[in-house]
Amino acid sequence: MSGLxxxxxxxxxxxxxxxxxxxxxxxxxxxxxxxxxxxxxxxLSLVERIAKRLPEPAPVIELDVTxxxxxxxLADRVREHVDGLDGVVHSIGFAPASCLGGGFLDAPxxxxxxxxxxxxxxxxxxxxxALPLMQPGGAVVGLTFDxxxxxxxxxxxxxxxxxxxxxxxxxAQHLGGRGIRSNLVAAGPLRTIAxxxxxGFEQFEQAWTERAPLGWSLTDAEPAARAxxxxxSDWFPATTGEIVHVDGGYHALGA
Length: 255
Ligand SMILES: NC(=O)c1ccc[n+]([C@@H]2O[C@H](COP(=O)([O-])OP(=O)(O)OC[C@H]3O[C@@H](n4cnc5c(N)ncnc54)[C@H](O)[C@@H]3O)[C@@H](O)[C@H]2O)c1
What we know:
The protein is built from eight helices and seven strands; from the N terminus they run E-H-E-H-E-H-E-H-E-H-E-H-H-H-E. The protein is an alpha/beta fold. Strand 4 (85-90), helix 4 and strand 5 form a beta-alpha-beta unit.
């Protein structure tokens, strides 16, 4: 098999529809020589149906990334399909409605805690659950939305992403000695289920389509997926704790 990820074995979380960023990552990874195992959350039969739309139907393992039981059993479940992992993709985010859409000042801690558990702490949890299968040269890649600024309506999800960006740097620090890299892709707005659950998301859509220097497609996750593949590949061997913006250049602009 040839391709950028020839021979690599990947665990890809976060597929729920074919618009999911994770779906584009899984598809492109298979097209570039990787063997892909998916994890699904909640609606497993839906994820299995979507998995059949990949170039190679991929096995789906159930994973609620906040479940200690699921995390503890993950490596054994993955071993049923592949004998190790070269890469792990974290494409998971969730915040209760109170945390998004302008409710920053009122969101209760229990809801914020859920957002941080699913969207931030889970990055470390997933990496540690997969670690027994990984070797030097392996990579963990996650998806963020530029957390260096306060955006309209993103509220506690923005805080969760700031934490994710920090967690990725700490993971880079703690797993560097084992030869494992941790990097994030900061994607521009894409019309996925997660995005549609943010009231006022249209503001991002409008800003990006009007202002991104390279222009921006709200429905094409392939540019973000390509960056994930690059970071999972052997072409960034000395890069860790990094954030690559795949946003049409929006982050580079001033007000
Ligand atoms: N869509 C965007 O505009 C955008 C931009 C930048 C970054 N991101 C990030 O990309 C990642 C993927 O999101 P997406 O936009 O593809 O949306 P999506 O809705 O397709 O994917 C989100 C995934 O998170 C999973 N998930 C939620 N709670 C979970 C849990 N407890 N355990 C395991 N999985 C769980 C869902 O099942 C779903 O598959 C998220 O981290 C998101 O914040 C999205």
